[in-house]
Design brief:
- With about 160 residues, this protein is mainly α.
- It folds into two domains: about 35 residues; about 80 residues, Cytochrome Bc1 Complex, Chain D, domain 2 (Orthogonal Bundle), CATH 1.10.760.10.
- It has six helices and three strands; from the N terminus they run ααβββαααα.
- It has a three-stranded antiparallel beta sheet with strand order 1-2-3.
- The model has no long low-confidence stretch (mean pLDDT about 90).
- Bound molecules: heme C (HEC).
């Protein structure tokens, strides 16, 4: 082997080394670009058949901080009876913003049954009324107490 050929061989080796290096570098670069564009690797995940799977997974009746999230009602005994019977036609807000005692609730329910097609509530009526008067009671006092025992004084002329 003369020196010339030896030189050419080492050049080929270096040349091949460069190709391997740049090929590797290219692959890593492609990978990094891919990760930058799709860092969750979603392209490799199987598509879910049901498009609303995420939505359907959410518990409709989940409670957060003692509040039934969907309706805003307080979590207490009778909650689900109220949710199932009193939030179908109107918002729960219409229910909770009305503070009534037992008699007036019974009368309101009668009125809805007579005029608004509310169904017979059976034994749930008592549970519902108890829930309402316990958790949404009639405010005891107005914003200001009545003025009592006032001492009036004469205005001087
Ligand atoms: C079948 C449908 C339906 C259901 C179920 C229903 N309501 Fe009603 N409710 C109505 C309608 C209709 C009105 C009148 C709404 C309006 O005035 O806009 C009403 C009005 C009300 C009002 C306001 C009454 C007023 O004097 O303004 C309250 C309070 C109420 N409902 C509570 C309840 C409670 C508690 C339940 C569960 C026992 C319930 N509703 C279930 C149809 C329904």
């Amino acid at each position: 082997m003369d020196r010339n050929e030896e030189f050419r061989k080492s050049v080929t080796i270096i040349y091949k080394g460069f190709i391997v290096f740049f090929a590797f570098f290219g692959i890593v670069l492609c990978l990094l670009i891919y990760i930058a564009l799709d860092h969750t690797f979603s392209a490799f995940k199987q598509e879910d058949d049901t498009p609303y799977a995420d939505v359907m997974d959410i518990d409709e009746d989940r409670i957060e901080n003692g509040i039934h999230v969907r309706t805003g009602l307080v979590e207490a005994e009778g909650l689900m009876e109220v949710v199932h019977n009193c939030t179908n036609c109107h918002s729960a807000l219409l229910v909770t913003q009305n503070r009534m005692d037992k008699e007036r609730w019974a009368a309101t329910i009668d009125w809805m049954q007579e005029t608004q097609n509310l169904w017979d509530l059976g034994k749930n009526e008592e549970i519902i009324i108890n829930y309402l008067v316990t958790n949404y009671p009639v405010p005891k006092k107005g914003r200001r107490q009545n003025l009592e025992n006032l001492e009036w004084y004469e205005l001087e002329e």
